[in-house]
Structure formats: C-alpha cells, structure tokens
Specification:
Blueprint: E1 11-27, H1 33-48, H2 52-63, E2 67-76, E3 79-85, E4 95-104, E5 107-115, E6 120-123, H3 131-161, H4 169-196, H5 198-211, H6 221-227, E7 242-243
Parallel strand pairs: 3-5
Antiparallel strand pairs: 1-2, 1-4, 2-3, 4-5, 5-6, 6-7
Helix pairs in contact: 1-2, 3-4
C-alpha cells in the first residue's frame, strides 16, 4: 500500500492588507530550545573526549542559532493574520494572496504573502525550495565543503612536514584512506543537517501547492527570483523576499 501524502492544512486567502505592524526580531528557526540544549550537551561530551575544535563549533551553533526575521501582524479584510516572514515588502492597501493556517476565531498564521500587482513574495524563513532542489544543493555543499576542508588539512600537513612526504607511496595511500573515511563521516553529518532542514522544505512545498504551482519539488525561489528580477535592484531581493512567475 502506498504512503498517502499528508493533507495540506494551509488555505489560500485573498484580500487587502490593513493595520499592518512589522517588527524586526531574532528567533531560532532551525534549533528549538530542546535541540539547543542537546547540542550544548553534545559539545560538553565532545570536549571531555578531546574533540576541541568540533566542540567549540557546537557551542557556537547552540549559542548563536538565532537569526533576524520580521514578525508581522495585520488584517486581511476581517481576518487577523500573524506570522514570521523573512522580509515583507508589502504595505497597507496592497491586494495580496496569503498562504495561511487557520488557528480558530478568524485568526490565521501566515507562511507566505504574494502581492498581486508585481508577484513579489514574502515567505517563512528558509521555506524557499522543494525537496529535489534541497537534496541537490545539500549534496553539492557537502561535496565542496568536505573536499576543500580535506585539501586544506592535507596542504597544512605538507607545508609543516615538507612537500616531499607526498612523494612517498605509503603516505599517499594513507591520505587516500583518510579521504574516503572523511567522506563517509562528513556524509553522515551532512545528511543529519539536511534532515533538520526538511521541516522548512515541507512548509515550502505546502506553500507552493496552496498557490497552485506545478512541480513543487523542483521549485527554487532564489533561482526564479533571478530569472524574474525585472527592475528590482535592491540587495535583499532574491535572498529575503522573492518572485515566482
């Protein structure tokens, strides 16, 4: 029996924005409070085991996971809308389409706002691509980062011990085995990081589906924004707010 796709809880609302309030705030979207504590505990365990540099990185990840986004509150006709958006270029009086989740009592949580006049799009932080795009970008990032890091370590050792060590057969064999082992370890790390971001991918796909866009798994808002830049030259366009056409 095939797994059934979960029901889309989002609705598409249309209307005019009024009583808009925007505030720039910091929030941890990737790590919850529980996950931050777990990362911190892992860092402490790592330091006890002698994993100094890795532990420092984990401590930094736990302590600096907050990022800036806009908390928006407004009315759409008689509906109360609230939500986190990376950046919202819309203003009072704009005619928009909103992907939102009903919260009861005529209140909704917004996940995307699209202005009809120019197709500008504000979205929930990190919800910018479908799963196939996410997998391709994750694989590319893993391949580049793991290879460059290993190359950097290899060059550092060669500079410290002398380039002639690379001419020794057993040393080259050692580096080859080490590289394959590092690829395996880094692949596991990259997979776990990629899985942590899947919640945003699911939000993105549900958002795209609610708008009625086809092939949601292959949508990349950063790419479509570049292709449909038009007259927009502002630096935040294509990184914090987008366009899909």
């Amino acid at each position: 029996m095939k797994n059934q796709k979960p029901k889309n809880p989002f609705l598409l609302l249309c209307g005019t924005i009024s009583k808009l309030e925007r505030s720039q705030r910091t929030h941890s979207f990737i790590l919850s409070d529980l996950q931050q504590r777990q990362v911190g505990a892992t860092a402490i365990a790592g330091s006890v085991m002698g994993m100094g540099a890795a532990s420092v990185g984990l401590v930094g990840m736990a302590g600096n996971s907050d990022e800036e986004a806009e908390w928006v509150e407004f009315e759409l006709d008689v509906k109360e809308i609230k939500g986190w958006l990376w950046m919202m270029p819309m203003r009072n009086g704009d005619n928009v389409e909103i992907v939102a989740e009903p919260m009861g009592n005529n209140r909704y949580t917004a996940y995307a706002v699209k202005r009809k006049s120019d197709d500008l799009l504000a979205v929930h932080p990190h919800a910018t691509a479908g799963r196939k795009v996410h997998y391709r970008k994750s694989t590319k990032a893993w391949a580049w980062c793991s290879s460059l890091l290993f190359l950097f370590v290899t060059m550092a050792l060669a500079i410290d011990m002398g380039w002639e060590i690379l001419l020794k057969r057993d040393i080259r064999y050692f580096f080859l085995i080490s590289f394959l082992l590092w690829l395996s370890i880094s692949a596991i790390i990259a997979f776990r990081v990629s899985r942590k971001l899947m919640a945003f991918v699911e939000i993105a796909e549900l958002t795209f589906e609610t708008f009625g866009w086809p092939d949601v798994e292959n949508i990349d808002l950063r790419k479509t924004s570049v292709e449909n830049r038009r007259e927009n030259k502002l630096p935040n366009y294509g990184s914090l707010y987008f366009r899909y056409k």
